[in-house]
Write a structure and sequence with these properties.
The chain is of the alpha+beta class. The chain contains 26 helices and 18 strands. Among the domains are: about 220 residues, Glutamine Phosphoribosylpyrophosphate, subunit 1, domain 1; about 220 residues, HUPs (Rossmann fold, 3-Layer(aba) Sandwich).
């Protein structure tokens, strides 16, 4: 696991080694064990590669990066892990390759030399990489199938620059960076910025499952090498019981594949279904001395899941480690995390993710996590919302219009009270009235409520953003067919919000503490099986993740299988009404919002007033604005 960066020049300029060193320094948290750079110049152009290394496989110096082929022609920087590298190594040896290390980086380099971009489809793992052929001054960047590992790049008149994080990329190019207003609106509306956009107009995020080629004449367009909808359909004819057993086998194999490590390994254990499944199979694979890690809240019982985590740990006999934090400790972590982020992140769960990552890193270097399961098996409420809204629409129109909807819209909205939270959820459900499935899904995916849209100054642009995302959802899933609309919606989230939000958050929060997180649910064979199943196997009569619950009945305690889903959250909404009020108001100011060009301070003040008075629950958008303005003050020197 590493952080990578690099520059390819096409205009005859040499690579500025000082800039490359600064980029590596900005990425050092991703790889504290070694820093390496390499530069080369020729009449056709110049190149510089940099890598910071977290030594997980073959921790010897021989496996440090940048990696170079024996003949000196081919070069690689690589961030990630390839779990099937030993099988690929055997194949390559049979075809004449020789190896001097026992890790995966040298195998990735040899595979790219042998097969070029066709090597990508052979990798089972997570990665972002840059491969360079010094003789022809050409190569490619690539990112894993599901966007587990990040890769950002910039193309300008002088060439191509790339890095694992935006804070590294900005070291490599000139300081003429400008704000992408569409990305800012997306951040405020959804809490993330999806590929290919970044907060800067000049920088792009390489999409998952894509590669980008370059040669002496310049840089090509991103090309896709994998589509989830084109995956193995061997499960499509299975009965439900057979599918349960098959999915359990696929997940078990994925966990076993992710055991490979030369450093201590453990697992996050929230007490929810997904992490419990991972722990179940990890214990089967390596025994009950598995180290597990959970986070509990001393002062916030409504957000605390530590009892369920302890139940699962006891059930499987793991070596369990529990971090219990007070409100004061959570609040103290907010500025530390925001200071670290080289780009705005609108998901406040990055705070507890950072806390548990720092805690786990004291014991292990690698953990397994449960990300990806919600998007594959229908874990979010917005997936069952379609059925709930259909049931609601069957009620008499007069009852809905004259009684229920006025009551819901007039009631208070807050996550701090079960009753007010029901009003909040019902208000969100009503956003989907009169829409088709994709329009409903996009409306429910927003963190910005319609009554809070005044924080964005251009209502016409906001409406265009919404239409554009709906069309993107339809286009991205067109090859999935029209027979099962819910499967198309799941496929969209797998390709869109999962890499932009959840995987981005986990990568930044964990690598902040030099912790590697592996995600078995995103093994290609697990995804292939899941996308082939009918959606009724996943979501049925209000049940989410139906097939996982039934597949693990008898293996995981019923108390975990039957409990309602709970997100990994902090009570940031309550904090904004109290201890974080001063921080929010000192950061989200008129002068801070103005340079973004699309945000209204008056709108922010109205939204905050509604939130404090509990007329609306706007914690998510308030955190997105805090993160955005904090980032501007800390990282953006454009004004």
């Amino acid at each position: 696991m590493c952080g990578i960066c690099g520059v390819v020049r096409f205009n005859g300029d040499s690579v500025d080694l000082a800039r490359l060193d600064r980029a590596c320094a900005e990425l050092k948290h991703r790889g504290p064990d070694h820093t390496g750079t390499w530069t080369d110049a020729s009449p056709r152009g110049s190149v510089g590669l940099g890598a910071v290394r977290l030594a997980v496989l073959d921790p010897t110096p021989a496996a440090n990066q940048p990696a170079h082929a024996e003949d000196g022609r081919f070069h690689l920087v690589f961030n990630g892990e390839i779990y099937n590298f030993r099988e690929l190594r055997r194949t390559l040896i049979a075809e004449g390759a020789a190896f001097v290390t026992d890790g995966d980086t040298e195998v990735v380099l040899a595979a790219c030399v042998r097969w070029g971009v066709d090597a990508l489809d052979r990798f089972n793992g997570m990665w972002a990489l840059a491969f360079y052929d010094g003789r022809s001054h050409c190569g490619f960047l690539a990112r894993d199938r599901f966007g587990i590992k990040p890769l950002l790049y910039r193309v300008d008149k002088s060439g191509l620059s790339f890095a694992s994080e935006l804070r590294g990329l900005t070291c490599l190019a000139d300081d003429d960076w400008s704000i992408n207003q569409t990305a800012v609106r997306e951040h405020v509306q959804f809490g993330y910025i999806a590929h290919p956009r970044t907060v800067f107009a000049e920088a792009c995020r390489l999409p998952p499952a894509h590669y980008l080629t370059f040669d002496a004449s310049g840089v090509g367009e991103p090309n896709r090498y994998y589509r989830p909808a084109a995956a193995d359909d061997s499960t499509s004819t299975m009965g439900y019981g057979e599918a349960c057993a098959d999915m359990r086998r696929r997940i078990a194999d994925a966990v076993v594949a992710r055991r490979v490590s030369d450093v201590p390994i453990g697992a996050f254990l929230s007490g929810g279904l997904d992490s419990s499944i991972i722990v179940c199979h990890l214990v089967e694979a390596i025994g009950p001395d598995v180290k597990t890690f959970s986070l509990g809240y001393t002062d916030q019982k409504a957000y605390d899941e530590s009892d369920y985590a302890a139940l699962v740990a006891s059930h499987f006999g793991t070596d369990h480690h529990e971090l219990r934090v007070t409100d004061r400790e959570v609040i103290a972590a907010v500025p530390r995390v925001l200071d670290h982020l080289g780009e705005p992140v609108g998901d406040s769960s990055i705070i507890p993710t950072s806390l548990i990552s720092a805690f786990a890193r004291k014991e292990v270097t690698v953990v397994l996590g449960g990300d990806g399961s919600d998007e594959l098996f229908g874990g979010y409420w917005r997936y069952v919302g379609h059925q709930a809204l259909a049931a609601y629409a069957r009620l008499p129109g007069w009852l809905r219009r004259l009684a229920i909807e006025p009551l819901v819209r007039s009631g208070g909205s807050s996550k701090s009270s079960p009753t007010r939270d029901k009003f909040r959820q019902f208000r969100k459900l009503l956003r989907g009235l009169g829409s088709d499935a994709f329009e409903r899904h996009v409306a429910w995916s927003r963190i910005l409520a319609p009554e809070a849209e005044g924080v964005l100054s251009d209502a016409k642009a906001v409406a265009g953003d919404m239409r554009g995302l709906v069309e993107r959802a339809r286009a991205m899933t067109a090859d999935a067919g029209d027979e099962d609309v819910m499967n198309r919606i799941l496929a969209f989230d797998l390709q869109h919000s999962l890499p932009a939000d959840m995987l981005q958050k986990v990568d930044l929060a964990s690598m902040m503490h030099s912790l590697e997180v592996r995600v078995p649910f995103l093994d290609p064979t697990v995804v292939a099986g899941a996308v082939s199943l009918p959606s009724c196997f996943k979501i049925h009569r209000g049940r989410r993740k139906r097939i996982l619950v039934d597949a693990y009945r008898g293996r995981i305690p019923d108390a975990v299988l039957d409990r309602p889903k709970k997100g990994f959250e902090v009570p940031v909404g309550e904090y904004f009404r109290g201890p974080l009020r001063e921080m929010l108001l000192d950061t989200v100011t008129k002068s801070a919002l103005g340079p973004f060009g699309c945000l209204s301070f008056d709108g922010f003040e109205r939204v905050y007033a509604d939130h404090v008075a509990r007329r609306g629950e706007h914690a998510d958008v308030l955190f997105a604005l805090l993160s955005l303005c904090w980032w501007r003050r800390r990282w953006w020197t454009g004004c």
